[in-house]
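Protocol step 4 of 5: obtain the predicted structure for the target chain.
Materials: sequence only (see below). No template structures provided, no constraints applied. The aim of this step is simply to have a reference model before the mutagenesis design in step 5. Sequence pasted as it appears in the construct record:
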Amino acid sequence: MSLRDTTRALQNSFVSSAPLPEELQLTVEAFLEKHPSIDDNDAQRLHDELVTIYNKNVAGFPGKHAPFVAVLRQLRPAIKSQDQLSEWWDLVIRPTIDSVGHKRDTVEDAKEFILSILVFDTDEDHSGYAARLSAHFLQRLLDAYLVRTRIPTRDGPAASPEDDFVAHEIEAVLIAFGRKKPKVRFPCCLTS
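Step 4 output (structure tokens):
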């Protein structure tokens, strides 16, 4: 399965108002199997196509959000750079885990997407890129968590039920990450 065939299948699936065909998942799986180590140029082309699909066919169509998050999670191994991942964090992932009203499967897909960035194999990270990427997104996740957790004061409002719910969802990602016994270095602690 080529990149062109995969992006064409994605475009065709998200243009339609019908539910995503099951063949799309098989198409994405076949693409990832054929290209287990996608090069940076193809990764950028895939990213650009996904952004186009998102902007034209998903943003503003709530019914397409869940299937898109599922596809994004599935394609995570082909989304490589910090800039690409940051764009998906801002467009899709954070809004999914940092709000209420999404279906459980959609939230789980978003949590798995971010967890796949946080957890990495230290033996395969010779350059330290995965560690830096993990630390960067761990900081973003912690920032989102801290916004939702407020210590009640006499003068200030207590956390809302929505804040409690979202904080719990973010805690779940942090706990899952912690159970992997990661070796973490925060950006503030990295030497230049």
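Step 4 remarks: Residues 188-192 have pLDDT under 50 and may be disordered. The chain has eight helices and no strands.
Proceed to step 5.
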